[in-house]
Amino acid sequence: MESRGVPPGPYRATKLWNEVTTSFRAGMPLRKHRQNFKKYGNCFTAGEAVDWLYDLLRNNSNFGPEVTRQQTIQLLRKFLKNHVIEDIKGRWGSENVDDNNQLFRFPATSPIKTLPRRHPELRKNNIENFSKDKDSIFKLRNLSRRTPKKHGLHLSQENAEKIKHEIIKEDQENAVDNRELSQEDVEEVWRYVTLIYLQTILGVPSLEEVINPKQVIPQYIMYNMANTSKHGVVILQNKSDDLPHWVLSAMKCLANWPRSNDMNNPTYIGFERDVFRTIADYFLDLPEPLLTFEYYELFVNILGLLQPHLERVAIDALQLCCLLLPPPNRRKLQLLMRMISRISQNVDMPKLHDAMGTRSLMIHTFSRCVLCCAEEVDLDELLAARLVSFLMDHHQEVLQVPSYLQTAVEKHLDYLKKGHIENPGDGLFAPLPTYSYCKQISAQEFDEQKVSTSQAAIAELLENIIKNKSLPLKEKRKKLKQVRE
User: Fold this and answer.
1) Which BP terms does GO give this entry (predicted)?
2) To 10 degrees, what angle do helices 271-284 and 358-370 make?
3) What is the gyration radius of the CA atoms in the chain, in angstroms?
4) Per residue in 58-73, pLDDT tens?
5) Which of 103, 118, 124, 472 is most buried, judging by how many CB atoms fall within 10 Å of its CB?
């Protein structure tokens, strides 16, 4: 069963919970069962529920095919705890569910969780603060003609060139002396250019339901863009924020297995498992996930883009969001993703778990170290596993520095230096490149357009042949004959 799709917005994890529980309640087959010489109607066994739910989750784009049967059992236990299901005697509230023939049924009550409502005044204040901050830096005089309408994801070359010529012409007409920009001005440009690009990539009318602009710290973005090694990994000035040396050595050991240039590998059996447990213990003991608690809602919203036809959008969105992280977190995430990706692809790596494959082990071990909510969320583990799986496959692109962002910021700073501000509320802010979606049409419309376009092209070709004075009459007849054929 495919996901019906939960749009971006606040409390997306709760909305996904409601979607899964509703689908489970509507689709799970019910029948008669016999237990202890007694018949029970409209019920199902735990094993039947695991089978059905396992298939549902693997075919839902929010969770993906790497969901394990054990994770499915864990979710079924949460169903019992939250009274989505009850045993045939009406008992619920515990997590006493196993993959067996124990009988369960659906209660008469609805499993839907109520979404918390944000106070209208808080929402209003967020919007007003966002607008005031934007006004303080971006509202310039005589820039209304420069501000394009943002439509989507594909850069329109024609519009970009048109805007470029307009800007050059206007700058020549209204040239003024460059003005000095403060450090605060520069930081605000970084913050808002990043947010505008993120909003455009996600295709949402507003980011205020997904992230508070005050959560975006421009100094982090600037540092993450400027301080990197030749491999794109963040370099920390304060070494006390870095991974301990013994953790780095252990990670290099497994990442380069069986050839490690950082330490002399002991040869006892099971050494690699001990090293892996040492690394896992360090990350599991971190006080918060690498993506931080405050960005949980942002990354959960991006999880709904993780579909094959939206893969590029997901990569671009994650690339920007990971720039928002504190530099020590970004560095740890980069090194962790590089390590687990190498380990999972290393055919020479001995088995690190008796019952679990290497890739599944990496996802199962580190998912909650990467993403989890400050308060317990019932789908946390599944959502985190989906994200880590995607990051393992695309970490090189996701965690590289986007050069287009640097270019856009430099252009905006240049516009600001050449601008002249009279009042904070004058004009509009300097433009980003325009984007436009390819509009989807029906098959019938496509056929009609194909025919009309082809006919128009043929008519134009015939007219050009006839009007061409340099073409001999014999050659014209020959070409007209070819067109008719």
Assistant:
1) intracellular signal transduction
2) 20
3) 29
4) 988 788 888 889 889 9
5) 103
